[in-house]
Amino acid sequence: MNIDEKYLLRCIQLAKNGLGSTAPNPMVGAVLVHNNEIIGEGYTSPYGGPHAEVNAINSVSDKSLLKSATLYVTLEPCSHFGLTPPCSDLIVSNTIPKVVIGLQDPHKKVAGKGIAKLRSAGCEVKIGVLENECREHHKRFLTFQERKRPYIILKWAESSDGFIAPEVLKRKNNPEPYWITNIHSRQLVHQWRSEEQAILVGTNTVKEDNPKLNVRDWQGNSPTRVIIDANLVLNSEHNIFDKSIKTIVVHHHKAKAKKQTKIIYEAIDFGENTISQLCSILYKHHITSLIVEGGKKTLQSFIDENIWDEARIFKGTKVFETGLKAPEITGELISSKKIINDTLTVIKND
User: Fold this and answer.
1) pLDDT at residue 333 above 70?
2) CMP/dCMP-type deaminase domain: from which residue to which, for each copy (predicted)?
3) Which positions are annotated as active-site residues?
4) 74 exposure class (CB count in 10 Å sphere: 0-12, 13-18, 19+)
């Protein structure tokens, strides 16, 4: 690992501090180095706040050092006015002579314009250091910009014999939740919820489990709730309508929605390409990442249309013998680990 890669790796480490709070902005990390010593660091503030480059520059106690420093950043500095001024202008105004960038920003308002502005001001710019690692880190933002949809994570838990729920009669006789995983796995799921911008379930999951779909066993923001309710059969008695969290209900275009405050209704045609239409709606709402928690029909719809990026599958020790079979999925194995007596497998869509 050379010196540029060393400092870019530190940028990626810093950037992870923004997970769950910066979206729809990318979570960027920035490091300022002078004479091979870090003099400033920063990462993207929660949405609407300063970007990583601003925070890094502001953290430098002796600003005179900036004139002979190198700025390392995971993503091309912005060049346009949004909620904050352009970072490239700030870099130029501080006469930072060299900028090392992991990845060019594909956003149409940036897309090389930040790099061009820096170079035209006489700044030396190096691009593509740890590019693959930066692409992996910025996967949510890049998927949103390049594919015009959120980064999609499928998640479910299945019994040791491959069922995600016991048979219907057993559930009716005993409607209490059938926990497949242990408390540690369930806490991890709440951490994941805090990291993603939205969470999605279908009608049957709401009917049977009446979930809140919020963050309880972890610190962080609760994601936007996205509910697929084609025929609008769900009612205000369900927890998803408590109006504590932004909620989007996706229904068939022929079903008439009753307007409610803080509930957004979006219509699609359930005749074909349901998930593609759903993704277009989420793109319109600037949702860069989505975790799909079920149920079986909903999960399988994403798999069948091949619109997913990552699947996180828990396997517990319980045996159901009969019931609702887990979704069928194939992909590239990324990791498999034990969480006490549970096994968590993560695969990517290849």
Assistant:
1) yes
2) 3-126
3) 53
4) buried
Which phi and psi angles does 235 have, rounded to 5°?
Answer: -130, 180
If 0-12 CB within 10 Å is exposed, 13-18 middle and 19+ buried, where does residue 44 land? buried
Considering only CA atoms, which of 4, 30, 13, 14 is closest in space to residue 87?
A: 30
Q: Is there a contact between 151 and 140 (Cβ–Cβ < 8 Å)?
A: yes
Longest dimension (CA), the chain: 74
The enclosing H or E element of 259 equals none
The predicted-structure confidence for 258-299, as pLDDT tens digits, reads as follows 777 789 999 999 988 999 999 999 999 999 999 999 789 999
Residue with structure tokens 């729809």?
A: 24
Q: What pLDDT, in 10s, does the model give residues 104-162?
A: 988 888 888 889 999 999 999 999 999 999 999 999 999 999 999 999 999 999 999 99
Cα 26 from chain centre? 10
Between the alpha carbon of residue 99 and those of residues 33, 250, 258, 333, the distances in Å are 10, 44, 53, 36
Query: Cα Rg for the chain, rounded, in angstroms?
Result: 23
- DSSP code for 146: H
Q: In this structure, what token pair is assigned to residue 168?
A: 């219907």
User: Residues 121-133: pLDDT tens digits?
Assistant: 999 999 999 999 9
φ, ψ at 153 (rounded to 5°): -115, 120
Cα angle 74, 112, 43 (rounded to 5 degrees) comes to 25
Residue 81 has pLDDT above 70, yes or no: no
Q: How far apart are CA 30 and CA 15, in angstroms?
A: 8
Cβ(246)–Cβ(240) under 8 Å?
no
CB-side exposure of 193: number of CA atoms within 13 Å?
Answer: 26
**Contact between 247 and 261 (Cβ < 8 Å):** no
